[in-house]
């Protein structure tokens, strides 16, 4: 009941059993071929004086996963052929976890929200073959968290045994890029806090470190902002579909304890229609029809960015919103500003005339104002690419720019000297391929086709950039726009595909030793982390028939 | 962050609030505009002497859903604007459920597995506006089940009230087609019994009545067949990934109690490679490489259909497998038989020579043998279209033919006089659009793009058929091939899309009164059944932002 596409190129590849199942691939890793078991009394010795509570919790989670993952090796027979070797293997009784001498003892959470580029995530991990103590060392608690995450992936189960086939193991690891993100839109459809936390869990397992939280949009405003409660009271889908200040703190602290910075986005001025419910006079072209003349998607409605009361409102709102999140970054969005909406709006036209400003000048003033407001709250602004490519807005080069329209636009952003995050729709949009969601449209979506993990994994972070521009690439991210998603399909649409970008931006433009990335090499490891996610309750989808998962070389 | 495709046609449609939220649309339905509540003491009076236990259970399920669905109307404010009307509404205290006078009292389960065309599913349902008893009547328990399912969909929640806006309601309903199916492949990846049961639940909510169970394939053999236990012992992915005889009985009885017939498929002789694990001498071209020369997908391996021992094996196996399922139907499959596999197989070539048969003659004999074996077990055979379109096999016109390669092939099957089931890959394949699953292939799958619900819903069951051929159309089905699916994404890939085919084959080629089907009319109702499924624990995906779900006319 299948046809194989005619474009299929047959390549018979030899892939060995996945003794190296770590995802993302460490910067440097050597493995042996000695079997080693975890002792039934295996323990993790946290040799840190007065360890921070989030580090203690991370160690406890690792111990939990070692006990409960129960993931058999993805080989025919699931490892049973090695039963005798496993039984006879030496036992590892202890992993000693310590900070490098002289390191200050600080929490994972505090390191996770430092400025990009200053977070220290490196670690060294060794697992001797003779049963002597394994060691994990780092300069920071955050580095130790990353090492613990790697340690969890070294082990598989057969019966009651938890073992590796690959001792001794030595890993020296550090991320290639400081920004490895996942964007979640919680405005088109709402996601309960528990689902966001589960996503943070999965992100941490593949060492992603930024949740770009597109929390509100034209359709709903679920975020409670102190002093601006009316926005969510009147703009949320329902009183239960709201993120309270306590929820936000819960999410940001849960994330930080897992090494993840939460960058909140309030997308202005183009994606704000719902604000009209509580502040109608601040808004232009609210629900104007046909919506496609006024907005990228329904409903139309933009903030009157040239009007003083709207400017004051925005500045105060951004300052208040910034106060409830620990990140040093905050996104003001700025994509898809529709000029026709303002052209048709008499209030905006009157304001422009009275101030003697062009549309572009007014927009520039508006953005500068919100950014200044964020600066007073200690935040560095993040914007979508249109802010620097399509408008004449003066922004400092500290601004972080998200490239989304096309991967090829990264070069233009870099040429202007901005730090950039790769978020291209042609590689990393998780929602592409599900068809057009407008009710009467039978066709496919603008960003079809579906982005396979192989497509995502083929992304080249330095493509079309000069060597001097490489340092402008902060990293990249997968993105889930939620027009056709909610908690029902969050896991299956996000995982394991998002692990592809996680590896690109952790391991680097190439694999270790300059070897080009290769989906044939990656597939067994990706299967492994996918099966591990399922064991941990994240409903990551099957990439292939189980027949292939156990012997990927037979399915190329 | 979206672009709207340039092919978008703007149509502003006026869609009223979904007072008519039933899916599939009944054959005839009239509604009023009077509000009516369910009384807090609402009860269902089953006025049937000695009711069968599955009917009693169906009534209990309906009472349960009325209490637990708690689905608010999908309108802005979720119905709160009608609070006063709801509070003031008359109360319905009782639904009386009865069989038409003179009807024999038989179970849902027995009716559900009768021959296609002889099952009686019709029912009449009335809900007066004045609070007097609602009535549900049918000739069979199965008809009563269908009516109870409709009754559940009439009600929405506001606060503690369960109400309708549309009394009085009168429904006369019966299906347009006898076969309304869902195909599940449990061989590429395994699905636990609980997931199959949840799928049966969802199927029953939209009045689907056939689970076409593609239980085994070349990759794994999870089915325990009495006398042939070695097939699953050696061919299942693991000892826990097996359907025991008790599991099969559990599934078929659970299905039958919900009005669903389970048609099992053992796809022969082309999709049987895994049988080589227990019966290597019966198989040709096992795991031959490159697999694409020998099979539609890996691994290669076909039953030696010309060899006497393989023929004997197949005949006995089909007879034994047929014995464990109540359905009057059983599928021998027959798609994608690879002739090169047999050409290259010396054992097959020797058998053909010694019997003086061509490949086609031998295949015909083989199929006739397995069908004869099924006939002795009381089963009517089901086959894929190649058996009648691509081979010179003499099959009786009672054979049911599944059309899959293209919707346009239905005409050729009908021309040969066969009864057919629409299962076309270009409309009803749920798995299309997720990209190629072969490890090293970055591209898209052969049946891309994704089949949207709108595409599915546009299917015309009588296209290219003469009026005389209409009676050959038994119905149609959605299909889930599981190369990239398992329990993780079963709900989200299947629902609510599969409801589209459910309505086509229940309600008919057109909507009631000959009105053409129209996705704009359907969308609010589809949202409603989707939200109801979510309330009941089936993770059906969001079709649109909630903003649009509450006012679909604003999102066209």
From TrEMBL, chains A, B:
EC supergroup of this enzyme: hydrolase
EC number: 3.2.1.52
Domain Beta-hexosaminidase eukaryotic type N-terminal, first and last residues per copy: 22-154
PANTHER family associated with the record: BETA-HEXOSAMINIDASE, BETA-N-ACETYLHEXOSAMINIDASE
Active-site residues from the entry: 336
InterPro entries reported in the protein's UniProt record: Beta_hexosaminidase_sua/sub, GH, Glyco_hydro_20_cat, Hex-like_dom2, HEX_eukaryotic_N
Residue ranges of domain Glycoside hydrolase family 20 catalytic in the record: 177-508
A GO CC annotation given for this chain: membrane
Region forming the signal peptide: 1-21
Biological process annotations from GO: carbohydrate metabolic process; glycosaminoglycan metabolic process
GO molecular function per UniProt: beta-N-acetylhexosaminidase activity
Similarity field: Belongs to the glycosyl hydrolase 20 family.
Protein name: Beta-hexosaminidase
Taxonomic classification: Eukaryota, Fungi, Dikarya, Basidiomycota, Agaricomycotina
Catalytic activity: Hydrolysis of terminal non-reducing N-acetyl-D-hexosamine residues in N-acetyl-beta-D-hexosaminides
């Amino acid at each position: 009941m299948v046809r194989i596409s005619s474009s299929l190129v047959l390549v018979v590849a030899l892939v060995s059993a996945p003794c190296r199942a770590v995802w993302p691939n460490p910067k440097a890793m050597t493995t042996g071929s000695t079997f080693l078991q975890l002792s039934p009394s295996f323990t993790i010795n946290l040799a840190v004086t007065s360890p921070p509570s989030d580090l203690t919790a991370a160690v406890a989670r690792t111990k939990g996963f070692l006990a409960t993952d129960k993931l058999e090796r993805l080989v025919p027979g699931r490892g049973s052929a090695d039963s005798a070797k496993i039984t006879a293997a030496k036992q590892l009784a202890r992993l000693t976890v310590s900070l490098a001498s002289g390191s200050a003892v600080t929490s994972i959470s505090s390191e996770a929200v430092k400025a990009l580029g200053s977070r220290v995530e490196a670690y060294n991990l060794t697992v001797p073959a003779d049963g002597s103590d394994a060691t994990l060392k780092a300069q920071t608690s955050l580095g130790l968290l990353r090492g613990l995450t790697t340690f969890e992936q070294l082990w598989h189960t057969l019966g009651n045994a938890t073992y590796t086939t690959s001792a001794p193991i030595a890993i020296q690891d550090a991320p290639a890029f400081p920004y490895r993100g996942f964007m979640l839109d919680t405005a088109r459809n709402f996601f309960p806090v528990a689902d966001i936390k589960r996503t943070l869990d999965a992100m941490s397992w593949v060492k992603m470190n930024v949740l770009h939280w597109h929390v509100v949009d034209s359709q709903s405003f679920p975020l409670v902002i102190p002093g601006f409660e009316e926005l969510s009271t009147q703009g949320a889908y329902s009183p239960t579909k709201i993120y309270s200040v306590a929820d936000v703190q819960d999410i940001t602290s849960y994330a930080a304890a897992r090494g993840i910075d939460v960058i909140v986005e309030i997308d202005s001025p183009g994606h704000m229609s719902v604000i009209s419910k509580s502040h109608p006079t601040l808004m232009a072209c609210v629900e104007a029809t046909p919506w496609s003349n006024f907005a990228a998607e329904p409903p139309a409605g933009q903030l009157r960015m040239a009007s003083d009361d709207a400017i004051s409102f925005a500045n105060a709102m951004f300052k208040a919103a910034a106060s409830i999140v620990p990140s040093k970054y905050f996104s003001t969005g700025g994509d898809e500003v529709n000029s026709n909406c303002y052209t048709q709006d008499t209030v905006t036209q009157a304001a422009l005339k009275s101030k003697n400003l062009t549309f572009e000048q007014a927009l520039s003033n508006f953005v500068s104002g919100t950014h200044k407001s964020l600066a007073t709250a200690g935040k560095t602004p993040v914007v979508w690419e249109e802010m620097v490519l399509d408008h004449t807005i003066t922004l400092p080069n500290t601004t972080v720019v998200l490239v989304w329209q096309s991967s090829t636009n990264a070069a233009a952003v870099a040429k202007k000297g901005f730090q950039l995050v790769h978020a291209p729709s042609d590689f990393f949009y998780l929602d592409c391929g599900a068809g057009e969601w407008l009710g009467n449209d039978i066709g496919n979506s603008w960003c079809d086709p579906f982005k396979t993990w192989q497509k995502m994994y083929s992304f080249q972070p330095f493509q079309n950039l000069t060597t001097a521009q490489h340092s402008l690439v902060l990293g990249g991210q997968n993105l889930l726009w939620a027009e056709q998603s909610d908690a029902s399909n969050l896991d299956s649409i996000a995982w394991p595909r998002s692990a592809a970008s996680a590896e690109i931006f952790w391991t680097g433009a190439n694999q270790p030793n300059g070897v080009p990335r290769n989906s044939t090499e990656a597939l067994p490891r990706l299967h492994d982390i996918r099966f591990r996610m399922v064991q941990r309750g994240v409903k990551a989808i099957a990439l292939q028939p189980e027949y292939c998962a156990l012997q990927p070389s037979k399915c190329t």
